[in-house]
Each structure stands twice: as C-alpha cells, then as structure tokens.
Amino acid sequence: MIWLPPSAFVSPEFLIRAATERWELTGAARLRRRVFVDEQRLFTGHDRDGIDQLALPLVAISTLAAEPAEVVGTVRIHEPAPGIWWGSRLAVAEDHRRVGRLGAELIRLAVSTATGRGAREFHAHVQIQNVPLFRRLHWQVIDEVMLHGVPHAHMLASLPHYPPIPDPAIGWSARASARRR
Fold it and tell me: How many domains does the chain have?
C-alpha cells in the first residue's frame, strides 16, 4: 500500500453550486483570504468589500465518500445594473488547481446563473495569466486595466454559450480530470 500525505489526495468528484450553508460561506471566505491575501498578496488582512453584501457566492466543494467535505473553489456574482452582471474573486485552492476544470465549472455556473436571471451582459476583470482559460470558454477581451497593482483584462462573456440555470443551489457534480502539464 502506498501512503500519500493528505495534501496529495484530491477528491474524484466535486459539487458545483451556489453556497447556501453557513460552512460553505465560511469556506469560500477562508479560501478567498488564502488566495488573494496570503498567496497573491493583493490585499492586506482580508479581501472583503461592499460587493460581498450584494453578491451571490458560488462554490466548488470536494466530496469525501460522496458527501460534501470542503470548499475548494469559489466565485461571486452580482448585478450592479439591470441585466448587467459581473463575476469576481474567482479562486481555486492551490492543491486543487491541477484538477484542471474547477475554475471552468465555476465560470460556467456563474454565467449560466446570470443568464437564468435575465443577464444581457456578463463581465469580469481577469488576471492576465487566466485570459487563455476565459477565451477557451467564449469570452473576449474588451480592455486592459490595472487593479490592486496587477494587470487585468476586462472581459465579456458570449452569453449564447451559457444556457440559463434557474436554480444555482441545485448545481451539478463534476468529476476530476487531470490537467495536462
């Protein structure tokens, strides 16, 4: 038998859905802090802002024995004007980035949720290194901006590629797939 440290284990299945339980919301906040404060150092102390009061948090949850276990991915969406939606704070836990599709699944849930709520546009400010992922998912760059001292692309989703989801709390399950290096 081969022993693997706990950090080497990646769940083979994930739940992709709106965060509705307190532990999911806490897990999303903890993950954002780990990624944006501790790892990327974009913020000091925390990354919370006024958008959090309006936003719908979405999560990717690892499973253990087919039961929800831990928040390993998150993004938030909000509608600042009728029909105009934004996604922000997309984060995937470092030891789950090699899964290769959690970010894409969260993006799909984000845009499809907004489409289900009447979105006419869906925008995001995307760190430059993530632009290729968004392009593969039918987004286009419309501008370049600096945010928190880091270059970002202002991107716009092509909504016809995102069928409406009426209830993001139901979500779906996604199987792990190894990312090619």
Answer: 1
Is 75 among the domain residues? Answer: yes
Nearest-angstrom CA–CA distance, 146 and 13: 36
Q: Say if 97 falls within a structural domain.
A: yes
Structural domain containing residue 34: 12-175
Find the CATH number of the domain harbouring 105. 3.40.630.30
pLDDT for the residue 73: 96
Average confidence (pLDDT) over 87-94 = 96
pLDDT of residue 180: 38
* Residue 6 counted as domain residue: no
Q: Is residue 149 very low, low, confident or very high in pLDDT (cuts 50, 70, 90)? A: very high
Q: Is residue 2 part of a domain?
A: no
- Give the model confidence (pLDDT) of 11-21 as tens digits: 578 999 999 99
In the prediction, which pLDDT does 1 show? 47
- Contact in structure between 164 and 115 (CB atoms under 8 Å): yes
Longest CA–CA span in the chain (Å) reads: 57
Helices (H), the chain: 22-32, 102-116, 131-136
